Structures are given as C-alpha cells and as structure tokens.
Amino acid sequence: MVFSLTDITREGQAVIDVFNEVPERARLELLLEYADSLPDLPSKYKDHPNLLERVEECQSPVYLFVEVEGNLVSVFLTAPSEAPTTRGFAAILKSALDQQTIDSVLSFDDSFVASLGLTTLVSPLRIRGMHGMLSRIKRQVREKSS
Amino acid sequence: MLVSTNWVQDNISQPGLVLVECDEDILLYETGHIPGAVKLDWHTELNHPITRDYLSGSDMAKLLSAKGISREDKIVIYGDKSNWWATYAFWVLKLFGHEHIAIMDGGRAKWIAEGRELTQYKSVRSPSVYPVVDRDDKTIRAFKDDVLQHFGKPIIDVRSSQEYSGERTHMPDYPEEGALRGGHIPTAASVPWSKAVNEDQTFRTYEELNQLYRVDAGISEASDVITYCRIGERSSHTWFVLKYLLGIQTVRNYDGSWTEWGSAVRVPIVKGTEPGELPAWFLV
Question: Is the Cα torsion angle A83, A84, A89, A93 positive or negative in sign?
C-alpha cells in the first residue's frame, strides 16, 4: 500500500514513495543511504553546540536547530555515526522539511513517520524518536515565526 | 562466558566458532562489522510476531539454521552500547539451552577503539540443521506470578532513577509506550544496569561487581534473584552479570517488566527512592 497524505511537502511524499516501492528488507539499506547522506553541520553551529536543541526522545544524542528567514525554513540536524538509524531519520526529515515554507512545515502531517513502512522493522522507541525530532522542529518554527 | 577482543582476533577462523553481532541500532552491522560475523536483529528476529513472547522452538530452529549456526557451535556475541543487546540475545538463546555462548567484553566499541578490522561484506554461512528445542521458561525467565511468589528474596530494578521513583512512566505525548502507574516493585533495589560497566564498555571487575550488588544492593549471599527493567532488555544485561560474572545460582529475568507490572491490576507498587515494603493489604 502506498500512502498519499494531503498535508505533506512534495519532497516528503517522494520519500514515502521511495520507501514503499521497495521490499521491506531493502528499506533498511535505503535508510542507511539516507544516514550516509546527512550533511555535517555548518561551522556556525558546530562551533556553538549550545545553540542546538537535544532531542530527548531519542536514545542517541541527536541535536537540531531551525532557522526561519522570511517565509523559508532551514533545518539542521546532527547525530553520531554510531547511531545510523537515528542519522537516517534525521536525514529523511531534513530532506522533507528543509527549505520549505513556514506553513508547509507547521501543517506537515505527523503520520508521515508511520507512512514510511518502517514500523515493523524499527523499534517503537526509534519511531518515537523520529516523532520527537518532527515535533521539536515544528515547535522551533512556531517560536521563530511568531 | 566472557572473551576478550584479543581472543576473538586470535580465534576468528576457528571451526565451530560463530561471531554474532546484535546491536540496539539495527543498521550498525551494515556500516561495518567484524569479518565473518552474522547479524542478529533483536527487534524483528527474536520476538514472536504477534504474541508478546519469544520465538517458539521450531521458529528458533529455522532462524539459527538459516544463519548457519549449529547446536554444537560456540557463539560469541558482541554489540553496541556496552553489549546491552548482546546480553539480551545471549539470554534469549539460553532460553533454548544453547550451551556454548560467550560475550565479547567491551563489544563493538572496544573492537573499533583498538583499530581492529571491520568489513561491510555481509557474511554468508551455509545453512545448518539446528534442532527444534523446547523453550525453557522456568530456569532463567520469570513471569509476573513468579515475581509475586518471590517476595522476601532480592529483586533488582535496573532502570534509571526517575523510572524507579515513579517520576516518569513514559515519554511526553506517548503514553501508549509506557505503563499506567509509576514506581517500582516493592523491596526491589535500584541498580541502573550501566553501573556494571567501565567507560571502555568492558564489565567491571569481580570485586567491584561484588561490592555493587552483594554489598550495596544487599543481595548478600542470596542464591535466587530476579531482575527487571521496562521490557526485559536492560535487565538481561544485569542478569548476565549476576549469573555469570558473580556466579549467583538462580537468576531470572522478568521480561514482562515495568510495562506489564505498572499496568497490571492490583499488584503492589512503591513510589519514591526507597525500596519500600509490601503493603498490608497484599500480605493478608
């Protein structure tokens, strides 16, 4: 079954499609590719880790920061290489939400996380961690755009 | 029951030895593992797909046969996070009485810190014929009723201090992941599981572990102990320590743990930082 959500960015829907098009076991390899693709933080955040927000819902140390300029949202996330699943989730959220408008981030459908077809492969704690990242990104956008 | 990274390096190609990697982060094996190691996925491979239980004997036989593991093989398990999930896999395999299993002390992190070889090449072993063995749910596994019968003997709660005191039952916004009540099983001593390991993720010495559990947690000379956490994984780490590193005769892991106990009707619970006592209504 391929999910189609209404309140979702085009990039977000593309991620859902690519995950649902491959057989279940291949989704982990796909997740690993995302993990490898997560870019390093720009140096202004690397040198000032206090600017970053820790995602407490994740078992691994994941930090994020959101910038709002005009109507455009930039999302920065970092997770250690010893936590590839978490890195993969971070990279997925970055590709779905980075450089999107404030409205499209705030209205971004939370069921995105459940639509990736990963819930049987990854533990509920992990899925919860991804929800935590998404809700913290939205909260930062709300705070910085009001 | 414990082998060093050096030992593994020296014995890696010994016939009858199978290296198994079991990580909390299920993608880590793919990023690189010890040459020849096979992956065991705790989340998708060890649990019964529907009932909250472990695999049946025939499903375990199928799983181990497909991985090319024989009943006589010596299995050496290692993993991330101080062998947290490696000891969990160890415990599950012991439910089926696999005799020769060891943990690689220090796990994945120590192997990497020592600059030893990793590969991304997925190991393929030829399938074996692992026999169907009935799971033994009595010797090293405890159910809720066993815990209710156990009072008076030591119980170790290995969760974080906030979970023990009852400050936290679940993460914000996700009540379905937690329990309905917070606190701990009356009389249980609090020893967070990670106290048993050093910074380099190896286990602490016998003397240190003895102090931690027999003296500080008050197990003393008891020969029958139950461990628990939230779903029974962190407590299998402590189970391993008590049974194999301290040599306590009977140690059972209560895998129902707090997600069962904290939601069960009419079981006694204590809140706060003290072990507490059984309530009068329970003793009647």
Answer: positive
